[in-house]
Specification:
By secondary structure, this protein is α/β, with parallel strands linked by helices. It has two domains: about 150 residues, Isopropylmalate Dehydrogenase; about 160 residues, Isopropylmalate Dehydrogenase. An eleven-stranded mixed β-sheet has the order 3-2-1-4-11-10-5-6-9-7-8, with helices on both faces. Helix 4 runs parallel beside helix 5, helix 6 crosses helix 11 and helix 8 runs antiparallel to helix 9. It is globular.
């Protein structure tokens, strides 16, 4: 990355803010030295942290005492959050001062405020949350992961085209395969709006590589590049996968310390085990993207550490690097959804 990219950080959002925000920014600078940050938050708390890290010396601090609480209702956050650390960081993207905003704060508030300030792209009725999903063969993209609890067929079809663009532009998949999450692979199974969306996508085979339904147990097999779901099902799937990853690593740790022979075996296999733990680490995939907006917004897990937040920053950097918004608008404008 040669061109300097300017990112706005909601420095007061998240369980361990602002410490992990600043440390995560510093970690991301190791991989991307040309990125510049604007930290939005309490200057008295931020200045000692940032001034102690040499690589962050060119960062800006935009002071505000206001922040969005983790339990704040989105409707209230929108009404009073314009001058909050989250609201000001989003508006810096709207004004063109920054290329993207990253926050570990309240998800509902972030979605509501980005939708208000950045506005949906023409042709998109509802933005969706998308993220990388680890699979046996590499990575897939899944959306929606919680922005829209209830959806109709039109929403799912739009999600499919946004997911297609994400996989194509950011993941580098030339002709990404698209699947709808369902309770079975047979055409007659599932709720009516899912079956309707499937029929619409089947009729648009010249515009999208739709491969049909996919069940939850097939997601991790990597048989589809993009998995589409309503926000309720997608969020449950994501959280279940994260919990399973922690369960597996916990079992492995116990097994390797259960006896002297297993401890000796660990000494011979620790490099492979280290690689395994990294692949299963949810922090590696931290950073969900709000697709369908006139600006780049990335949501980090609220309870992540500096390593996880740095990965969320890197997701935003990839989106900017690949000129995602411009390319997505071009793709959406050329699509005839026939709805």
């Amino acid at each position: 990355m040669t061109k300097s990219i300017h990112l706005s950080l909601d420095a007061m959002g998240g369980d361990n803010a602002p410490e992990i925000i600043v440390k995560g920014a510093a970690q991301s600078k190791i991989r991307h030295p040309n990125v510049k940050f604007s930290f939005f938050g309490n200057k008295n708390k931020l200045l000692p942290l940032i001034s102690s890290i040499k690589m962050l010396k060119n960062s800006d601090i935009i002071h505000t005492n206001e922040f969005i609480d983790a339990n704040e209702k989105p409707s209230i956050a929108v009404r009073k959050g314009k001058n909050s650390s989250m609201g000001m960081a989003i508006q810096s993207v709207k004004s063109g001062h920054a290329d993207a905003i990253i926050s570990a704060g309240n998800t509902g508030a972030l979605m509501a405020m980005t939708k208000l300030f950045l506005r949906p792209i023409e042709g998109i009725s509802r933005p969706a949350i998308a993220a990388y999903f680890p699979t046996i063969t590499g990575e897939s993209c899944m959306l929606d992961l919680g922005a829209n609890i209830e959806c109709d067929a039109k929403n799912l079809v739009q999600f499919a085209f946004m997911g297609q663009a994400f996989a194509n532009i950011v993941m580098g998949v030339t002709n990404p395969s698209i699947s709808l999450l369902n309770i079975g692979e047979e055409e007659q199974k599932g709720l009516d709006y899912i079956k309707e969306a499937s029929q619409i996508l089947s009729n648009l085979k010249d515009q999208i590589n739709y491969t049909g339904f996919i069940e939850g147990d097939k997601i991790a097999q990597g048989i589809s590049d993009v998995i589409i779901a309503d926000g309720f099902s997608g969020n449950v799937s994501l959280k279940t996968a994260e919990g399973t990853a922690l369960l597996v690593t916990s079992y492995l740790k116990k097994a390797l310390s259960s006896s002297l022979s297993s401890k000796i075996g660990y000494l011979f296999a620790r490099r492979a085990i280290s690689d395994f733990k990294l692949q299963m680490d949810p922090r590696k995939y931290n950073g969900a993207v709000f697709l369908g907006l006139n600006g780049i917004a990335v949501k980090s897990h609220g309870g992540t550490d500096a390593f996880g937040f740095a990965n969320a920053i890197c997701v935003a950097l990839d989106m900017v690097k690949y000129n995602f918004i411009h390319d997505l608008k071009n793709k959406i404008s050329k699509i005839s959804l026939n709805l």
